[in-house]
Design a protein that fits this description.
CATH class of the largest domain: Mainly Beta
CATH topology of the largest domain: Neuraminidase
Shape: elongated
Number of domains: 2
CATH superfamily of the largest domain: TolB, C-terminal domain
Length: 682
């Protein structure tokens, strides 16, 4: 498939879309787990100048938005630069325009001051390499440029494979002068983490086939394939059960996998001197020893003396970048020496082997956002990433309630009047549509069993934050949602031994009136009442009781009219539905799009999947709204439109307060082998 990108043509193509959009503009907000704290920038350290000091750590990207997954390039001939170009050429992913895309930066390094400054008399050379298409919103990842400087290689998620839980990630090549784009991944397959061979002839990828994703959360099984970079032909599998390929030369490929002793380790694949290749013709050797995790390897063209890796050592909670000497088989620590209490991700080495790059959180220099505008694929719909969990709008849209750990908060959409209205451990929020200032929430443990102590309360945020308890049996009563007349609350409860739906009086609670809405040996949960009062939408595993597979259902408040709205497919998850203001559509979170990047390459976001989707009540007009390799969820529709502008948080911090991947936590047996893992506290 080939397409030609033209910004002018893109603007013309948008005109009919805008003209056909007759509905009133609307707004959806959602949460991305830990994303507000990432604030990634790309940094670099010299490889040979030891011992290292903190001022040798150079910040290469500009601190705007989130910048990550960089790659040094040796040739940028297709990017028209001044005659005196600076020595460091960098391509990377940035989210500064509301959607991950690829930028090129030329960075001048002053070795005398150990600081970076931009070229051209302090003017940064910065070029977006791919045009932004509102109608082609997608995630981009792992960019690199061919050795001749003519083609950009990257991952994109803009094509729907049409299969539930199949990843949309595929590798594309764009000619930098003409904009001509070609898909290199065959349809029906998924490719991650592309790596160019030093000659540019071959591209290696971590791939999985048409069997799709089976729901793995950590050891996401991929195989390494190689193909001709020019057109994707001569595709062949080289290595089973492997990821994150990196070439040292056109016959030596490094990758990571979890070894039998449970340590993530780097392996080397030695290819035969001539094609064709196959798994039978490749020699596989383990390179890094047990005793620490080593992953996401990075090599430099033609250099078989060392590589850079990310590590997690026993006893450490931080991910660091280290060099591994391939001659002496020993590690040399880098980032722990200059920033010991930060996580460092996905190293890459300069073409001359003099520097190593990586990304990490930039810390307190980050301006955190309350509402971060995300590029929307739908005309008339503004999308925002919200810095809080379970957000919900007041009926007039003048306030947003949300939860944090612990506490319940209320804030104005412009960031003003932030207040903590409860210190309790809570999850889910909903406003009363009639009684101004009254919100509902569930107090207690989230992700608990049917018997977990959780109860629903109302909080009057206009009357001294007075709390009124509405449910009393403590059997995991949660996810309250009020009827549009303010008389009733629908919620889920485990009081029967299963999580089913109930309706109680909104003021007097269950002691005044309570009736059961659904019944069965399954979980009905995450309910939301429609604006016209006709429907309640909820998530349920009634199609597969006892499993983690959830689908969306609709039911009338009187218990009639039960029907399925959204099927999960392949045992997937469809959760947290919320009605549009006109009651004709539902927004929800789902793993329908599978995984968009190798999970180990990201921080711990609780789950390596989750996007926001919408669908009409008749099952039509199914749309993917967000593209991310992090977990997007708990969406809510605003009663009123919010313009597409970022809103800063009224208070900064905490900064960089996120965990590394929980499955890298290490418990050792008496022999020093990794035998078990424990989840980080979120």
């Amino acid at each position: 498939m080939k397409t030609r990108h033209s910004p002018f043509l893109s603007a013309l193509l948008l005109l009919p879309l805008l003209a056909l959009s007759s509905a009133d503009p609307t707004t959806i907000i959602f949460n991305t787990v830990a994303r507000v704290n990432f604030a990634f920038d790309i940094y670099s350290l010299p490889i040979q100048q030891l011992p290292l000091t903190p001022n040798q750590q150079l910040q290469l990207t500009d601190g705007h938005s989130v910048n990550y997954n960089g790659h040094f390039i040796s040739n940028a001939s297709a990017i028209q630069l001044p005659t005196h170009s600076p020595p460091l050429h960098l391509v990377y992913i940035t989210e500064r325009n509301g959607s991950p895309t690829v930028y090129y930066d030329a960075v001048y390094t002053s070795t005398t001051t150990c600081k970076t400054r931009s070229a051209l008399e302090n003017t940064r050379i910065q070029v977006p390499l791919l045009p932004t298409h509102t109608h082609q919103v997608s995630m981009k990842d792992r960019p690199s440029v061919t050795p001749d400087g003519q083609y950009l290689l990257y991952v994109s998620t803009h094509e729907d494979p049409g299969v539930p839980r199949a990843s949309w990630a595929a590798v594309y090549s764009t000619h930098l002068l003409s904009g001509l784009t070609q898909r290199l991944t065959p349809y029906g397959l998924t490719d991650f983490s592309p790596a160019l061979s030093p000659s540019g002839l071959w591209t290696a990828v971590a791939s999985y086939g048409p069997h799709g994703w089976a729901g793995e959360l950590e050891e996401f099984t991929t195989d390494i394939y190689v193909f001709h970079t020019r057109d994707g032909t001569h595709r062949v599998k080289l290595v089973d059960d492997a990821g994150w390929p990196s070439w040292a030369d056109d016959r030596t490929l490094y990758f990571h996998r979890r070894a039998h002793d449970q340590w993530w380790s780097i392996y080397r694949a030695i290819l035969p001197s001539e094609a064709p290749f196959s798994t039978d013709s490749v020699l596989i050797e383990r390179v890094t020893p047990p005793g620490l995790h080593a992953f996401t390897p990075a090599t430099s063209p033609g250099n078989n003396k060392f590589m850079a890796v990310a590590t997690r050592r026993a006893g450490s909670t931080f991910r660091h970048i280290e060099l591994f000497d391939l001659v002496n088989n020993e590690f040399k620590e880098l980032t722990r020496l200059v920033s010991p209490t930060s996580h460092h991700y996905n190293p890459f080495i300069s073409p001359d082997s003099s520097r190593v790059g990586y990304h990490k959180c930039r810390g307190e220099s980050n301006a955190q956002l309350l509402l971060e505008n995300v590029q929307s694929p739908v005309p008339g719909l503004s999308l925002f990433r919200f810095a809080g969990e379970f957000p919900s709008f007041s009926p007039s849209a003048d306030r947003i309630a949300y939860t944090a750990v612990p506490g319940v908060y209320v804030v104005n959409p412009d960031g003003s009047n932030l207040r903590k209205v409860s210190d309790a451990m809570a999850f889910s929020t909903a406003w009363d549509p009639v009684r101004a200032g009254v919100i509902y929430t569930a107090i207690g443990e989230s992700f608990g069993s049917e018997s977990s102590q959780v109860d629903i309360v109302s909080i009057d945020v206009d009357e001294g934050n007075s709390v009124k308890k509405l449910s009393f049996d403590g059997s995991n009563n949660a996810f309250p949602s009020a009827s549009p007349d303010g008389k009733w609350i629908v919620f889920r409860s485990g009081r029967s031994g299963y999580k089913n739906l109930y309706i109680m009086d909104a003021v007097g609670g269950e002691r005044k009136e309570l009736r059961r809405l659904t019944e069965g040996p399954w979980n009905d949960t995450m309910c939301n009442w429609s604006p016209d009062g006709e429907w309640i939408v909820f998530a349920s595993n009634r199609h597969a009781p006892g499993t983690a597979s959830y689908e969306l259902f609709l039911i009338h408040p009187n218990g009639s009219g039960l029907r399925k709205l959204m099927k999960s497919g392949s045992g997937g998850r469809v959760n947290h539905p919320h009605f549009s203001p006109d009651g004709k559509s539902v927004v929800f979170a789902s793993d329908y799009a599978g995984i968009s990047a190798e999970p180990i390459s990201n921080p711990d976001t609780a789950l390596p999947y989750g996007e926001v989707f919408s669908i009409r009540l008749d099952g039509s007009d199914f749309k993917r709204l967000t593209h991310s390799s992090f977990e997007d969820g708990t969406p809510a529709w605003s009663p009123k439109y919010i313009p597409s502008l970022n809103v800063e948080k009224p208070k900064g911090g905490p900064y960089c307060s996120f965990q590394d991947c929980y499955f890298l936590n290490i418990t050792l047996n008496t022999t020093g082998a990794a035998v078990s893992k424990s989840r980080c506290a979120l």
